[in-house]
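Structural prep section.
Before we set up the soaks we want a predicted structure of the protein with manganese (II) ion in place, mainly to decide which crystallisation condition to try first. Input record follows.
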Amino acid sequence: MAPSQPFSVLPLSAVAGAEVRGFDANAPLSDGDFERIYQAWLDHGVVVFRNQIMTPESHERFSQKFGPLKGHILVQYLLTGHPFTLVLSNKRVNGLPVGLEDAGRYWHSDVSYEDIPPDGSLLYALEIPPAGGDTLFANQYRAYEALPAQLKERLIGLKARHVFNYAKLQAQAGSERQPLTDEQKKQLTGAVHPVVRTHPATQRKALYVNPGFTIAIENLPKPESDALLNELFSYATHESVVYRHTWQPHDAVLWDNRCMMHHATTYDRKYVRHMHRTTIAGSRPY
Ligand code: OGA
Ligand code: MN
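Run finished without errors. Recording the tokens verbatim:
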């Protein structure tokens, strides 16, 4: 049996996030240590491991302790030979981008446009700019809890439609996103999810609509749907529920997509920001 590691779990803010300090993700993991980290993930939504040296192999190996991994619809940005490693980067090789340069510059929960969205994501920083490029996380349990009782009532049974607005992202100034293939377009049918989901592990309710991918509340006329979504987004992204992560090189950050949204921030493109992400498969939201 693996020996346990003497790490501590230190909350990073009152809202979300904890740092696991004194832990090596490459070392064999004991059941007890895994339980503590898994619990930190559930309790804090975002878990930060600093100073990790992760190869694509060890990154995938550690990630899959939390569940089976999934690839990504944008296969052109998966790391060659590593079908579960998505590259987020502004690096170029032979003039061509090696990864997604502009990933997640809007509030979203990863891949909520699929029927079975991922439980978690683990983003590892290989190179980061000296300033900028922070990632914001918003606690959607808190967002839900902050809703007035009447609004909570109104959300009972409501569902919303999520789509991957790829064409819109592609049309943005400076975007280098490659066109989708017909096969990719066919797979991107979108999904319908409850507006409020129950986290299957904590049983807590969280708001599950996001400005990035949620386009409409089902069965409402567009003006009402737009107004309701905007009202919900104002709670979902309120500064009182947000934790800002400022990256250091070799940070590995694991988050829970079931109860947290996130948002990438900009940085000066003359610097390199190069990250690898794994994605932990999930189950149908309810
Ligand atoms: C992601 C993502 C944000 C960032 O990896 O899913 O949205 O700051 N990243 O790079
Ligand atoms: Mn994301």
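Observations: The radius of gyration is 19 Å.
Flagged for discussion at group meeting.
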